[in-house]
């Protein structure tokens, strides 16, 4: 059975959940928060639990939420830095107009002025080039309510048929495949089943870098004696700890799956 080069405790101690270096005064030597709020990381669909430190209605840091059942306090680099988003100095809080005389290259304008100018430009472009001159691309970090408003704005305000979001390149295709194969557009089993598996087959997914928290579930299965198979054209990090690595050519995944299904049926292993 394969093993990682160092222990899981050493990896967690070295890479998170914490900053790159211990801050001056130690981990508990910073500003004392007014309250700690339990919430979720919004940077992917796994929705890891996290505790945010709040001082004067501003997020100043985070704490691991060890009691949260999914990630048990673990966070990936995105989750560790997530708290910086709300109060980051580069966050846009007001409409800005390009101004070559300003040191920053922009000057602040009112919301009324900004909205009027945007509406005027939208109307001009629609009249000169038609509504389909517009295209909208949204991100997967939007909530369901925000995604609904994006779609409604594109179809009713802009009148365009050019609407997309970046999840179409990953989650939509997975949802369509799951729907045909399993009857639902998502995995039909909980993450807690992974550590109980005898064989874990990871196909075309760089879990260690895109969903690091899931890696801990695979390690739990491996530590129980599970066999780990990784199928990927590249030697992704998880492949280095696999019992069997299948470096398939891009586009040949379906041929491999078909061959495996053939053997399952031929040997009556289903």
Written overview of the protein:
It contains eight helices and ten strands. It has 270 residues and is an alpha/beta fold. The chain has three domains: 8-21 and 31-84, Phosphorylase Kinase, domain 1 (2-Layer Sandwich), CATH 3.30.200; 130-183, no CATH class; 189-266, Dimethylsulfoxide Reductase, domain 2 (3-Layer(aba) Sandwich), CATH 3.40.228.10. The strands form four sheets. It has a three-stranded antiparallel beta sheet with strand order 1-2-3, with no helix packed on it. Strands 8-9-10 form a three-stranded parallel beta sheet, covered by helices on one side. It has a two-stranded antiparallel ribbon with strand order 4-5. A hairpin with an 8-residue loop joins strand 1 (35-40) and strand 2. It is globular, with a radius of gyration of 24 Å. The relative contact order is 0.08. Mean pLDDT is 86; it is low at 15-19.
């Amino acid at each position: 059975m394969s093993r990682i080069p160092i222990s899981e405790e050493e990896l967690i101690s070295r890479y998170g959940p914490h900053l790159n270096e211990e801050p001056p005064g130690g981990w508990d030597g910073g500003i004392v928060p007014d309250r700690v709020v339990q919430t979720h990381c919004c940077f992917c669909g796994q929705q890891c639990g996290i505790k945010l430190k709040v001082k004067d209605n501003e997020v100043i840091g985070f704490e691991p939420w060890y009691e949260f059942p999914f990630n048990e306090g673990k966070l990936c680099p995105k989750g560790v830095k997530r708290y910086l988003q709300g109060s980051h100095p580069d966050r846009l809080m007001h409409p800005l107009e390009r101004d070559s005389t300003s040191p920053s290259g922009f000057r602040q304008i009112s919301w009324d002025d900004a909205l009027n100018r945007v509406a005027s430009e939208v109307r001009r472009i629609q009249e000169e080039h038609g509504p389909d001159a517009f295209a909208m691309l949204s991100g997967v970090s939007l909530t369901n309510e925000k995604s609904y408003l994006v779609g409604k704005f594109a179809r009713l305000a802009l009148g365009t048929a050019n609407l997309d979001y970046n999840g179409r390149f990953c989650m939509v295709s997975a949802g369509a495949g799951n729907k045909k194969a399993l009857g639902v557009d998502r995995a039909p089993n909980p993450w807690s089943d992974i550590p109980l598996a005898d064989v874990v087959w990871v196909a075309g997914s760089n879990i260690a870098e895109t969903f690091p928290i899931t890696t801990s579930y695979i390690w739990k299965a491996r530590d129980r004696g599970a066999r780990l198979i990784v199928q990927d054209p590249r030697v992704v990090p998880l492949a280095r700890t696999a019992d069997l690595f299948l470096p398939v050519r891009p586009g040949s995944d379906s041929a491999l799956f078909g061959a495996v299904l053939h053997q399952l049926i031929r040997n009556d292993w289903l």
